[in-house]
Design brief:
The complex is a heterodimer of chains A (about 230) and B (about 80). With about 230 residues, chain A is mainly alpha-helical. Chain A is about 70% helix and about 5% strand. Chain A is built from 6 helices and 2 strands. Chain A has a two-stranded antiparallel sheet. In chain A, α2 crosses α6 and α3 runs antiparallel to α6. Chain A is globular. In chain A, about 25% of the residues are buried. Chain B is an all-alpha fold. Helix content of chain B is about 85%, strand content about 0%. In chain B, α1 runs antiparallel to α2. The longest helix of chain B has about 40 residues. The interface between A and B is medium-sized, with 22 and 16 residues.
Amino acid sequence: MKSPLALETLFHIGPAPITSGVVTTWAIMAALAVAGFAVSRRLQRVPSKLQLAAELIVEAVDGQIRDTMRVEPARYRAFIGSLFIFIFVANWSSLAPGVEPPTAHIETDAGLALIVFVAVIVFGVRARGVGGWLSTFASPNPIMIPLNLIESLTRTFSLLVRLFGNVMSGVFLIGVVLSLFGLLVPIPLMALDLLTGAVQAYIFAILAMVFIEGAISDGKPVSNEGILK
Amino acid sequence: MNWLAVVSIVSAALAVSFGAIGPALAEGRAVAAAMDAIARQPEAANTISRTLFVGLAMIETMAIYCLVIALLLLFANPLLK
C-alpha cells in the first residue's frame, strides 16, 4: 500500500520537484482567483444572484470574525476568508475524480500553519506595536514567558497535525476500504469525509482567529460598542 | 521480518487503540455537556455549538497525534531503514 507520507513527483522546475499536490494547489488557487474576479468585477447596488451568493459568504465570514475576535472584521476579512475558502475547497477537491486533496499532504498543511504563525506576529505587531506584542508573552505574569513561547510553537504544530491527520486519515481510510470491498462501498465514508473536511476548514479558520485575537487584544473584556455597526 | 518490524506493527496498533479511548470518552462528555447547556438555554445554541466544535477539534487532536505516530511507525520508521 502506498504510504500516506510519500509524495508523487510529476516534473521538475529547475532543481525544485513539483508534486501532484502542488499542481492541485495551483489549480485551486487559479479557480478561486478567477471566481473571485468574475464575481467582484461588476458589483451592483441591486445585487444579481451571483453577487448575492458571494455577499452571503462574506457576511458569514464577517459574522464569525465579529463573534470570535470581537473586532471590526474589515482588517482580517481577507486573510481569514481566503484561509477558510482555500482549505474548504482543497478538502472537497477529492470530489473531482483522480484528485487527491492537497491538504492530505503534510507539506501543504505546514505551509498553511506557517502562514498563520507569521500572520499572528504581523497582526499583533500592527495592532499593538513591537513592545505591545512582546508584552502579550508576559501575560498574565512574567513567569509564564517560557510557557507562552513554547505554546506559540506547539499550537502551530498542532494546527498542522490536526488538518493533516484528519484529511489524510479520510483519504487513507477510503483507500483501504476501496482495496478491501471494491467499487461504491466507500461512498458513505466519502460523505463523512466531506463533513470532516468542512468542519476542519471551519476549525482552522476559527483557531487562526483565536490566535490572532490573543495577539491583538490585551486580555481585557471588550465592550460591544463599535462592533455592532 | 525482524523483531523490530513486529514490535513496530504491534505498537502502532496499540497507539491507535489506546489513544482512541481517552478522546472518545472526553468527546462524549463534552457533547453531553453541550447538549445539556443547549437544552437549558436554546437561545445560546450558536455560541455553544461553535465553542463545542473548537473544543472537539482540540480533543480529537490527541487521537490524531496517535494516528500520526502509528503511521510514522508503519511507513516512515527510522529504525527499519
